[in-house]
Amino acid sequence: MPLSLTSRPRVVLFGDSLTQRGFEEQGWASALCDYYTRRADVLNRGYGGWNSRWARFVAADLLAPAAPRDGAKPHHVVAVWFGANDAAAPTERAHVPLAEYGQNLDAIVALAQRSATHVVVLTPPPVHGPTRLAFQRAAYG
């Protein structure tokens, strides 16, 4: 039996610019889309510059089922990737204190678990201070 557009499994990528930019050439989201070709729809819900606080406010609407699939959860996988902007310096607008970041992630993951068969939480990449400083100096003086 052929799959309809409403019954096709969905993979939802929800995160900051690391997610948003995942569909750039050679991006990680592009690789997922290629892997799931003809088997699932990969939806990029990346919001550049966002932190977990702002994401928490839209998570319920974003992860809500578009159409139920015979009682199954509407999303096969939801990947959640926030934290890079949350970890900004406390003087930056996007900064979120660590305790609040944890609470925000817990809330987002709980919403994702209600609508997805599998939930994957990605951690922000590590930052090597000396390398980052050299990049900043080269890019911005």
Structural commentary:
Strand 3, helix 4 (98-115) and strand 4 form a beta-alpha-beta unit. The chain has 141 residues and is of the alpha/beta class. The chain contains five helices and four strands. The protein has a four-stranded parallel sheet, with helices on both faces. Helix 3 runs parallel beside helix 4 (98-115). It is globular, with a radius of gyration of 17 Å.
Quote the average pLDDT. Answer: 89
What is the number of helical segments per DSSP (H or I, 4+ residues)? 5
Structural class by secondary-structure content: alpha/beta
Beta-strand proportion = 15-25%
Rg (C-alpha, Å): 17 Å
**End-to-end C-alpha gap:** 60 Å
**What overall geometry do the principal axes of the alpha carbons give?**
globular
Spatial strand sequence of the major β-sheet = 2-1-3-4
Strand tally is 4
Largest sheet: 4 strands, parallel
User: Percent helix among the residues?
Assistant: 25-40%
Spans of at least 5 consecutive residues whose pLDDT stays below 50 are: none
Name the helix and strand elements from N-terminus to C-terminus, one letter apiece.
EHHEHEHEH
